[in-house]
Structure to design on (315 residues):
């Protein structure tokens, strides 16, 4: 059994990019330190008192809530509010919602659930009329619902559990799809809101690799659901993840170098590089064009003969 590089305990993780071994205690210390300094560096909670945490019940979002709660527990000026979006994925999201509920009640964090069935269309229903990339629909609907939920609860920002791997995969995908404006919009502290309706999104797990999030969650006994989305197999993210992971295995530190490239790129962008945000003419939610993506996708699917009825609320 390998021993921690910092004490005499058994190691639970080897970090190839630093050539160090970590026991649960030292990995937890490092992870919490990283999250804390990311939050400070980008002013993620500065001047913000009601912080939303998007909790799906997977390892990333539950770990994020657990660490944020730990870091902010003595801070009486800030309140954490957990928001779960139920995309309507049977056998997957129902299980993870139970984990989200369990963690919120253990930590004493207020928890609200928002359902696709009320604001868009359930993913299971949508997928009966298969679309090339379900993640596009799901992502658009999820962001729309999260923003609405954030405003309904008066949140100043909403934390998204994107870890280092997610962030560099997104960056790589933006390059592959030629989406420079998306790179400009995907800032660590949520950027400058150009529309009152838009609630900034923050990413406290920015510098934590996925496997370290997993090790942290297991070591700290965090309840999470480890299933895979039933439609994940169709996503572009999969080959991108495989490619980046194979590069990381050959050249440890690749993910951090990609992250640094992305961070220095957005640092150098002129103010206003991201598209201005305005209100959607159909639903009044924030949008970068006249009609928001959610309304556009819903009417596109309708044109293609989708049989389901559109959104009960705010249609
Ligand atoms: Zn140790
Ligand atoms: Zn709209």
């Amino acid at each position: 059994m390998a021993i921690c590089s910092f004490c005499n305990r058994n190691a639970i993780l080897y970090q190839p990019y630093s050539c160090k071994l970590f026991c649960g205690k030292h990995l937890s210390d490092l992870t919490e330190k990283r999250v804390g300094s990311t939050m400070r560096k980008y002013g993620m909670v500065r001047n913000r008192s009601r912080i939303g945490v998007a909790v799906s019940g997977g390892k990333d979002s539950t770990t994020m809530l657990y660490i944020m709660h730990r870091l902010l527990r003595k801070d009486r000026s800030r309140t954490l509010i957990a928001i779960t979006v139920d995309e309507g994925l049977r056998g997957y999201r129902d299980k993870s919602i139970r984990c989200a509920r369990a963690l919120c009640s253990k930590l004493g964090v207020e928890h609200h659930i928002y359902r696709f069935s009320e604001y868009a269309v359930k993913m299971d229903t949508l997928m009966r009329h298969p679309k090339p990339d379900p993640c596009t629909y799901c992502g658009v609907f999820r962001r729309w619902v999260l923003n609405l939920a954030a405003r309904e609860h008066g949140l100043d920002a909403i934390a998204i559990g994107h870890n280092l791997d997610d962030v560099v995969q997104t960056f790589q995908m933006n390059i592959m799809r030629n989406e420079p404006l998306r790179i400009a919009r995907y800032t660590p502290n949520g950027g400058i809101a150009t529309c009152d309706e838009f609630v900034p999104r923050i990413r406290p797990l920015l510098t934590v690799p996925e496997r370290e999030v997993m090790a942290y969650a297991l070591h700290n006994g965090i309840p999470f659901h480890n299933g895979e989305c039933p439609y994940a197999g169709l996503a572009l993210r999969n080959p991108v993840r495989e490619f980046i992971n194979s590069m990381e295995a050959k050249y440890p530190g690749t993910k951090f170098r990609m992250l640094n490239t992305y961070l220095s790129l957005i640092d150098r962008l002129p103010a206003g590089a991201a598209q201005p945000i305005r209100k959607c003419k159909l639903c009044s939610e924030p949008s970068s064009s006249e009609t928001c993506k959610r309304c556009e996708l819903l009417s596109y699917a309708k044109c293609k003969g989708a049989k389901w009825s559109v959104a009960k609320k705010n249609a």
In short: The chain has one domain: 48-277.
